[in-house]
Amino acid sequence: MQTPETVEVTTGENPQGSVIWLHGLGADGHDFEPIVPELRLPADMSLRFIFPHAPVQPVTINGGMAMRSWYDIVSFDSEGRADRDGVLRSSAVLEGLIDREIERGIAPDHIVIAGFSQGGAVAIHTALQTGRSIAGLMALSTYMALPDGVDNAVSRKDLPIFMAHGSFDPVLQMAWGRASADRLIAAGYSVDWHEYPMAHAVCPQEISDIGRWLSGIYS
């Protein structure tokens, strides 16, 4: 599996951990790059943030227009919102990025995988299926793309999970995110769930909460 191009931001020398963060549909790896300094991480906490670019491919709901996408979306309903083969391909790409960080000297339990919207769906699936004991999962304004993935999950049940969603989200209704969190909780996982009065975006309070969560992961 070819490693995608990435944007990297390092908060200090000799990173002690890595955060691999996938963007949403139509965006690219630069989308969340400006958020890193806004997280206000401790000055002595050196992390490597990796923002990969999704491949450019046709997206059905957008009239077949080619754009950066982790998988195809046929419709905004439970049956068509995620192309299974596409999710699996992108999950394999994310696994490859995890392996690359391990090769660069970062232990698996110091690697957080994260994503927004489409990227979050890939992150959830990968977190459940990876054989690596990763540090945590951060899933923002997203949903469980392949619900059966939790049935054969191999991740440890004490995996730290941060999930957040906007209560005014017109793109991915918050009910999808909440239902996904409930599915994880029913399977034995503990989910740190957050709701914010926002649309399909991130907000200052969410960024602050993410910063505190990451600081707790790496403290």
Note down, in words, how this protein is organized.
- This protein is α/β, with parallel strands linked by helices.
- The chain has one domain (6-218): Rossmann fold (3-Layer(aba) Sandwich), CATH 3.40.50.
- Helices cover 29% and strands 22% of the residues.
- The protein has helices at 35-38, 84-103, 118-129, 174-186, 204-218; strands at residues 6-10, 17-22, 47-52, 56-59, 65-68, 111-116, 136-140, 161-166, 191-196.
- It has a 7-stranded mixed beta sheet, sandwiched between helices. Strands 4-5 form a two-stranded antiparallel sheet.
- Helix 2 packs across helix 3.
- The longest helix has 20 residues, at 84-103.
- It is globular and about 45 Å long.
- The mean pLDDT is 95.
CATH architecture: 3-Layer(aba) Sandwich
CATH superfamily: Alpha/Beta hydrolase fold, catalytic domain
Largest sheet: 7 strands, mixed
- What's the oligomerization state? single chain
Q: Looking at CATH, which topology would you report?
A: Rossmann fold
Q: Portion of residues in helices?
A: 25-40%
Task: Write down how many β-strands occur, each being a DSSP E stretch of 2 or more residues.
Answer: 9
Radius of gyration: 16 Å
Strand content: 15-25%
What characteristic shape results from the CA principal axes? globular
Structural domain tally: 1
Series of secondary-structure elements, N-terminal to C-terminal = EEHEEEHEHEEHEH
Low-confidence segments: none
Strand order, largest beta sheet: 1-3-2-6-7-8-9
Mean pLDDT rating: 95
Number of contiguous helices:
5
**CATH class membership:** Alpha Beta
Q: Compute the separation of the termini in Å.
A: 33 Å
